[in-house]
Amino acid sequence: MGNFIVQFPLKTEIYQEDILNKRFEIGRKIYNSLVTVTQKRYKEMIRTKIYRNIKEELKLIYQSKDKTNLKRKTELCKQLNEMYKQYKLNEYLFHSDVKNMQKHFKDNIDSFTAQKIATNLWKAYDKLLFGKGEYVHYKKYDTFNSFEGKTNSTGIRFKDNNLIWNGLNIPVIIDYKNPYESQALENEIAYCRVVRKFVRNKYKFYLQIVFKGIAPVKINKQTGEVKHTLGNGDVGIDIGTRTIAYSSKTDVKIYELADRVQNIENQKRILLRKLDRSRRACNPNNYNEDGTIKKQGNKKVTWVKSNHYIKIQNQLKELYRKQADIRKLQHEILANEILEQGDNIYVETMNYAGLQKRAKKTEKNDKGKFKKKKRFGKSLANKAPSMLLSIIDRKLKYYDRQLIKIDTYSVKASQYNHFDETYKKKKLSDRWNDFNGIKVQRDIYSAFLIMNVNTDLKTINNDKCNETFENFLILHNKEVGRLKGNKNISSIAI
Predict the structure, then answer these.
(1) pTM of the full predicted structure?
(2) CB atoms within 10 A of CB 250
(3) For residues 1 and 212, is the Cβ–Cβ distance under 8 A?
């Protein structure tokens, strides 16, 4: 059984806000102190010859993909785990480290909340040691914005419609007329989380309660009908960096992802220029004559920030917050729409991290000019396609289902033609398929093929494609008719 989260605003007084802000700063300092302690051990470990030899041998085994080396790989992994224990790099040893730090702040931070701070740091080390992480970062000022408890019986607690935490007793604003909130509160509480958000130049505080079980069903107040029911059948999703197309037996759609998220690059550029001018005016001694920042050796460069600078900085922060809220809201709405189409949702696997990186090769175009090395970083930051897929997967888990990821390189949906069962590479600019006079939008057709993939998730079921194509074409033409006359982005090509 899974969990779900409901967020409630806190009715704080000014003195309570001061205490909470103080605790967030203490939490940040505990986290950073823990980073310092653990990084010393980590750096000491990676300097040893034994560690470097184990990692190098493991790398060669993974590259060779030789199954006969399985026994040796297991031995090396055991040796690595022993080294992690030796250098105290595991979650429970982090808990003992944070215990020594927490006792100095016990009036503000309880031991269970401190342990969760250590657990969050361990997640960063987990990526570093076992995943694709490269660094463990310190938390900058104002970036530590949530505290988490372990249970609802100690530390951060919700009791009698109040947040109770180390002497603080803050009323929680609950709308009992809202069926969703009142039904949610009937579930057992796993743990609570205190969150702060910077909204319109002021911190606002919330209590996020993590409930055990399945989220309540939302009901339309006017009709009394259940909202956002899970559909029945197969759904294919073709998701790009800026658009998403889906195909089901009842509907076909193509959308620009998070179309209400504006391009804020112009506003950002103006605010960043203002910040740069203000910073230079207040810190003339930090710059060389040519305008570059002076190197201070091992010393950290200190900056004086004027009130004007802080005001502009807050404007930029508010701009980012609005964008993030709009993006998440639109993704949640679109996820609900897709779930209503069917319960078997297929999608291609995408390497978004790779798409964000700049191109390594320096190349020239046909005219002899150098091609830009920029790729899809800004599009992915604005549209967040990976976030949408995470939301769909989370909502499916409420029904004991999950997003089905097909093998992109085997299926090759963008190249396949189900009429003659052939593959043909296309340029990115080719947005339409022409099948002997039948014109179909490329992304929508890819979604249709993904919907009709076989159970092996590597091949397309051609019989199924032929059976459902006539219905698909009617829905496709209806969607093209809807989009005609609208201001669509160039990649939709309608």
Answers:
(1) 0.84
(2) 14
(3) yes
